[in-house]
Amino acid sequence: SKPVILAIVGSLRRESYNRQLALAAQKAVGDRADFRLLDYADIPYMNQDIEFPAPEAIARVRAEIKSADGIWFFTPEYNHFFPGVLKNLLDWLSRPVSKDEPQVLAGKPAAISGITPSMAGTALAQDHLVTLISFLNMKIMNIPRLTIPNAQQQLNQAGALELAASAPYLQKQADAFLKFIDSNK
Ligand code: FNR
């Protein structure tokens, strides 16, 4: 059966370039996988006072992670880091579900992409994300990663992300991630 790819976007912004990139990745994957976007805007801040039993939103997010064969991160860069909302999500997911059940990210194949209006292409944010998710024992596909600078040069007249120049690279990453997921089964 088809693998499930779960996209995690590190921006809550409605018009987020990274969200639009995730939707373009969904098209690049096509019918080769069941591609889903994780909705996590409603999760609380990590607070050990409310950790067990997990809040409903956390239980829901964990179930989505468990059912995924691969996790594809689309992260903005905030101050040369990945955004706090993504750190908060990963802090929750880094913790065991219960005494008998370990954290849900270990062993999951991960791909990383990012887009920014600036020139650096989110490379620094991606490296920080790699440091964290490798500590969480995810299986990271480091080649290829996708860093897209100058987002505003790839918009259409309506201001939506068109990705003319970057589309072939996104397609290559999608193809590679499908193979990577398959080889990690
Ligand atoms: C930014 N931005 C930014 N861009 C970048 O390339 N490097 C950076 O270090 C930062 N720092 C930064 C800090 C904060 C607090 C904000 C709000 C923004 C700009 C950022 O790339 C831009 O707002 C993107 O549009 C955010 O991604 P989404 O929401 O479009 O996916």
UniProtKB/TrEMBL annotation:
InterPro entries according to UniProt: Flavoprotein-like_sf, FMN_Rdtase-like_dom, NAD(P)H-dep_reductase
A Pfam family that the UniProt record links to this protein: FMN_red
Species this protein is from: Sporobacter termitidis DSM 10068
Coiled coil residues, start to end: none
Entries under Gene3D superfamilies matching the protein: 3.40.50.360
Annotated Gene Ontology cellular component terms: cytosol
Name the record gives this protein: NAD(P)H-dependent FMN reductase
GO molecular function ontology, one term from the record: FMN binding
